[in-house]
Protein: PhoX family phosphatase
Amino acid sequence: MAAATGTSPLLGFDAVPTSTADSFVVPPGYQAERLISWGDPLFSNVAEFINGGGNSAADQLGQFGDNNDGMSFFKVDDSTAILAINNEYCNYELMFAHQGKQMTAEDVKKAQAAQGVSVLTLNKSADGWRFAKDGKYNRRIHANTPMMISGPARGHALLQTSADPKGKQALGTFNNCANGMTPWGTYLTCEENVNGYFGSTGQVEITPAQARYGIGLEDAGWQWHAFDKRFDLAKHPNECNRFGWVVEIDPKDPSSTPIKRTALGRFKHENAELVIDKDGHVVVYLGDDERGEHLYRFVSEGKYNPNDMAANRDLLDQGTLYVARFDAADGELKGKGEWLELTFGKNGLTPENGFNSQAEVLIHARLAATQVGATTMDRPEWVAAHPTEPVVFCTLTNNKNRGVKDNQPVGGPNPRAENHYGQILRWQPANGRHTAAAFDWDLFLLAGNPTVHRNNLYAGSANINKDNMFNSPDGIGFDQAGRLWIQTDGKYSNEGDFAGMGNNQMLCADPATGEVRRFLTGPIACEITGLAFSPDQKTLFVGVQHPGEDLAGSHFPLGGDSTPRSSVMMITREDGGIIGA
Ligand code: FEO
Ligand code: CA
Ligand code: CA
Ligand code: CA
Structure:
């Protein structure tokens, strides 16, 4: 691991100190503006946001969704662009005057309307990029938007419901965490903690597969199943199998039907990092964010055609899904690894072991991963591939179960018991080929607290010091120059193991030298998540998610006594230069 030098030629900004303030702080010479916040109307015939939970479900259907997360920027022309943004979940304590304590059918409809994806038209003027209300691409996709199911699991019995006996058309997407984009101009939105929206009004038997996906008689408190029978396992046992997928959306066609791509497997998807291998195959790296779950890779059967965008549209329907196994000598923080194929009939994925088709392998990808011997990880969040070098990074955000649960031994890329700081894994595919079976891995950094812990791994790796420390890396992404941007979803108590870390933040790293420098800090009780650059690299869009969650006292972004609102921020340099340089 490289030591911090403070001399990286890639990092041209002054470090921002930690903060516990209710503000969004960027480096000297930078400026940040609010692009849009939860509840802002996308259309002029829609109500404005009302503080304290006054908006209706109908209002929310035409407003920017809640808890913005991953996002992608699509250039249309020099003065027009589209920003597609995930809306992950809701904070009932902020969304409803009753704080979620007296839910009604209308309230559930509002929560369903607040999740999914917001597609925004942006126009560029002398003042920079601005959201265009009534812009032609503006669209809300939510938990009741009709979707197509495609790929090998389309039509399988486990996807059939009374409303959709053919198992080919689902209703909606929700808990949309992070994202991806394709070179053929589509947006990938990833369904993550979908289990928490299902519950049962009666006694039903929970199958081992449902249990592995966290689906049980009790929901996570969202109460959808009490008011919308689609989410009631007692009435519709297969509805839950229609979520936990990657969904492909054409942002340039507001009338298009989103498509659930089952070839990419069903789990708690974090993001979908897509690269085109040298030989033209489409490779998508996929994390499953749960303690002790796995890291996946999809390789398309067909090849990308740069001269015919329409020919690429269904490349994500046919291919091979793999899951990673990491090998290391005892105590080594580097080693080798292998991608294990998840194909029906291979590697024990047979009827004797409970797999009767490729559809079942994909619907129960977690069970298949266990069958083939995948490594249990410390919560794989985002994956980011370097723009020019064959090297890939993945955040392993934290894992309190490491070394505690039998299936999660300490070692390899998960080297700390009760890991509450997280680490960033890096691997280099064999021969520089993203389609290769093998790779070499190491840890780019171990987050930690060198002011609390000394001479052990909890102090963090050599590139972590008292001036750049943080916990729980989550969102990551590269800019065109190869800077690695790191966002945190960590503990913001600023006490104990987290003393001196302050609010959640965004940092920037030089992958060559290992240097890490803090770039911004967020308001009270927020997560920083979601990033997208304009093609000229002069505007950076960053998400502030759930400021003031759990009534923590934020009034971001508008101050006063306003309701705190998740927001997309827009960062530029005062001199108009490239962000980070
Ligand atoms: Fe939605 Fe794993 O973060
Ligand atoms: Ca995340
Ligand atoms: Ca997280
Ligand atoms: Ca979050």
Summary: The CA atoms of residues 199 and 217 lie 5 Å apart. The longest strand covers residues 68-77. Confidence is low (pLDDT under 50) at residues 1-5.
